[in-house]
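Marked as duplicate of an earlier ticket. Keeping the data here for the record.
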Amino acid sequence: MTTHHLSDAELAAQPAAYWTGVAYEALIAFTRARQAELGFTQPQYWLLRNLSKNDISPDGQGMTLAELRQAMSSYLRPEDDLAVESELLLGRGWLTRDAEERLWITEAGDQARADLKRQTPAIRDRIHQGISDTDYVTALKVLRQMIQNTGNSLV
């Protein structure tokens, strides 16, 4: 689809699904590239967050890979291999595994998670460069309304 230098009228006729798909892929690729520059992957970060009582985990209890996959099911991508990613984190000493195959975050892993989390505002700032909070909120409201218009009540 040729999309450079479109008028407002031409943009208004563009399919939202195309643009949301392009935006999703571009934002994921950008975020993952910045994280890779910092020495970690997005799935590794998610593993640490889901296992940390200081982040997403409600109780800090260990979880099996199947439980982690279920917890992350709404944002894992098909190419994300939590088994491989968890092995890398085990090798770094950021996770441990118990006899029941539950993964647990270590103190070093939780410190790494906190360090990684401090990097996320810079990634967000780059993505939001030149976009006011007002415009961003408007865009999200428009997307939410489109979602509701399709009969989806997830938002």
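See parent ticket for discussion. DSSP finds eight helices and two strands in the chain.
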